[in-house]
Write a structure and sequence with these properties.
By secondary structure, this protein is α+β, with helices and mostly antiparallel strands. It contains 8 helices and 7 strands, in the order H-E-H-H-H-E-E-H-E-H-E-H-E-E-H.
């Protein structure tokens, strides 16, 4: 049980370390002029998670030093038995216990995450985002792109601006930028570029001007009379030359 507790604590510290590493990178990119974003991971107020943490702590407190007191040993035994019983699934409520176990052992649930927008000049807080409620469409989009980029960095252990990397950094974004503002879309693309991601963007043709500065090739999909789709591949230079020919 002590080893199990230690493993969960190690995972919790890993999350903290990765968030700290992401924040170091986020400070290098302006969220708004003169301001940057910091991601915050605070202990969850969820009573189920907190009760489990307290029970787990009670099981392991004093376990290394031990005690000759029989009542102490019996109490520890019953505490451990209770937790193991829930992990195994108690008769009649095994499904409820299964959901409980999945929730309390996923250390991501031990945190609530938020974002703090801060002034670069003195690091004071400009605005705090605990959710996207009440924000404008553009604010929601920019915050969503920031969280997406941070999530990719967290998932793959990426760092902003790192060029050399062994892992294959390929991301597909479908129905991209169809309803968003040009400014927030370009902000998101700059973040992805800082992560040195290889991105396949599926977007309506009228939005291609947004992604044009960030791509090296275009795959134009055309379906004539709804019969069969055709794909035409162009380098960005070929696309620009053909665009100039048609419009000029």
């Amino acid at each position: 049980m002590a080893n199990f507790h230690s493993q969960l604590n190690r995972e919790r510290e890993t999350i903290k370390e990765r968030i700290a590493r992401i924040n170091e990178s986020l400070t290098r990119s302006d969220y708004n002029t003169g301001r940057y974003i910091v991601l915050e991971a605070q202990p969850t107020p969820d009573a189920v998670i907190r009760d489990f943490q307290n029970e787990l702590r009670a099981c392991t407190e004093g376990a290394l030093t031990g005690s000759e007191d029989s009542q102490y040993s019996e109490a520890k035994f019953l505490q451990v038995k209770h937790i193991i019983g829930r992990f195994r699934g108690r008769e009649g409520i095994s499904e409820q216990d299964r959901r409980w176990a999945a929730k309390v052992t996923d250390v991501r649930n031990w945190f609530v995450f938020a974002a703090s927008e801060r002034w670069r000049e003195d690091n004071s807080e400009y605005e705090h985002y605990s959710d996207s409620g009440g924000k404008s469409g553009g604010q929601k989009e920019k915050l969503a792109y920031t969280i997406l980029a941070a999530s990719l960095a967290y998932q793959f252990g990426l760092e902003w601006g790192a060029v050399r990397s062994r892992p294959f950094r390929f991301v597909v974004i479908d129905e991209a930028f169809g309803r968003g503002s040009d400014e927030s879309a370009q902000y998101g693309l700059r973040l992805f570029a800082q992560l040195n991601l290889q991105i396949l963007i599926v977007t309506p043709l009228q939005k291609i001007h947004i992604i044009e500065p960030f791509i090296s090739s275009v795959g134009f999909v055309h379906n004539e009379e709804g019969r069969a789709s055709k794909l035409r591949n162009l380098s960005i230079e070929e696309y620009r030359a053909e665009k100039a020919r048609i419009t000029g």
